[in-house]
């Protein structure tokens, strides 16, 4: 039986880290090193491996993601059934969403990593690699965009969050749950996710807009939000609960010269549209021009806003994009009226 072709690239991360312990572990292993350490992986797929970088997840940027998109696009055009990107888990919830926004192929683009480095007892990297390759090779994964696979669980890039600093089960999809799970060598899906048209990548020589993420907090005087709206190209405001801020911050939203996206800082659930009416409530902020993020958390909202601004999308279309991409079910929208 022929094995499906799968391309695998490594960017580094905990899964690639080695060291003597006294000075801490650092990324050093190549993609070939990783693959050679996984029993049975050669039988799961016909692998083509490459090392794009050897860096911790915290140091990755938009340029790295552009390289990933170019590499993965070339791989599937050459016949790969899917592509796997290996990286540090610190930023997976953001990098995977960046990839998902711009991935315009039916073939799956799977992102994985590890919580335990190879020198630790019971490293999870080999199992995660095997699961990621299995997911990328499975025809059932087609059309789902970018996926995050860890701990035998498949997450949609637009929903996944890192919810623990060090546990093996550090990733979850709050609110809607995971897309599927791996069992007995196969992927089993049971939870649909909205899939939207891919955004084109802006020209490489165009500077990526600077988008600030500001989280409101108890006794917030609004100075940080005021600075962000004056100095950045866009702001994501992570509010309390369903999208609330202290009343003193509301005027700053009204006066903002740049788009302000309203998300929730809670980690699960959607911003509201019309439930509360006090100054600083979601209804008040939307009336002042804030763009509700819906079910998108603040970190993913920042990625989306930056991508849209880089493409020169006008402010009125920003609201429509967030209404569609921040919705919870296929074909629905956030449903908030503009201010």
From TrEMBL:
InterPro entries: AsnASE_II, Asp/glu_Ase-like_sf, Asparaginase/glutaminase-like, Asparaginase_C, L-asparaginase_C, L-asparaginase_N, L-asparaginase_N_sf. Residues 6-191 form the L-asparaginase N-terminal domain. One of its GO terms (biological process) is asparagine metabolic process. Residues 210-321 form the Asparaginase/glutaminase C-terminal domain. The active site is at residue 14. Keywords: Hydrolase. It comes from the Bacteria. One of its GO terms (molecular function) is asparaginase activity. SUPFAM superfamilies: Glutaminase/Asparaginase. Belongs to the asparaginase 1 family. This is L-asparaginase. The lineage of its organism: Bacteria, Bacillati, Actinomycetota, Actinomycetes, Streptosporangiales.
């Amino acid at each position: 039986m022929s094995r499906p072709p799968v391309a695998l690239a490594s960017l580094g991360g905990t899964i690639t880290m080695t060291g003597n312990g006294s000075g801490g572990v650092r990324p050093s292993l190549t993609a070939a090193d990783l693959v050679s350490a996984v029993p049975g992986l050669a039988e799961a797929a016909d692998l083509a491996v490459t090392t794009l970088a050897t860096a911790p997840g915290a140091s990755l940027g938009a340029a790295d993601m552009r390289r990933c998109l170019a590499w993965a696009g070339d791989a599937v055009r050459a016949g790969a059934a899917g592509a796997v990107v290996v990286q540090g888990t610190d930023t997976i919830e953001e990098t995977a969403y960046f990839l998902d926004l711009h991935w315009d192929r039916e073939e799956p683009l799977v992102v994985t990593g590890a919580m335990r480095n190879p020198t630790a007892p019971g490293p999870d990297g080999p199992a995660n690699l095997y699961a990621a390759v299995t997911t990328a090779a499975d025809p059932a994964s087609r059309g789902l965009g970018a996926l995050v696979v860890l701990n035998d669980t498949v997450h949609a890039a637009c929903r996944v969050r890192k919810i623990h600093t060090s546990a093996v089960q550090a990733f979850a999809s709050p609110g809607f749950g995971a897309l599927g799970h791996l069992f007995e060598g196969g992927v089993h899906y049971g939870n649909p996710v909205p899939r939207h048209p891919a955004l084109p990548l802006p020209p490489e020589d165009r500077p990526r807009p600077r988008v600030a993420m500001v989280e409101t907090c108890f006794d917030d005087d609004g100075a940080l939000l005021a600075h962000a709206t004056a100095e950045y190209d866009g702001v994501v405001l992570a509010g309390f609960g369903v999208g609330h801020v202290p009343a003193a911050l509301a005027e700053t939203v009204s006066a903002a010269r740049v788009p302000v996206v309203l998300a929730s800082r809670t980690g699960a659930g959607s911003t509201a549209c019309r439930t509360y009416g006090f100054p600083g409530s979601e209804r008040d902020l939307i009336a002042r021009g804030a763009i509700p993020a819906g079910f998108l958390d603040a970190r993913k909202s920042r990625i989306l806003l930056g991508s849209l601004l880089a493409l020169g999308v006008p402010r009125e279309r920003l609201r429509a994009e967030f209404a569609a991409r921040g919705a919870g079910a296929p074909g629905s929208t956030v449903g908030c009226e503009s201010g």
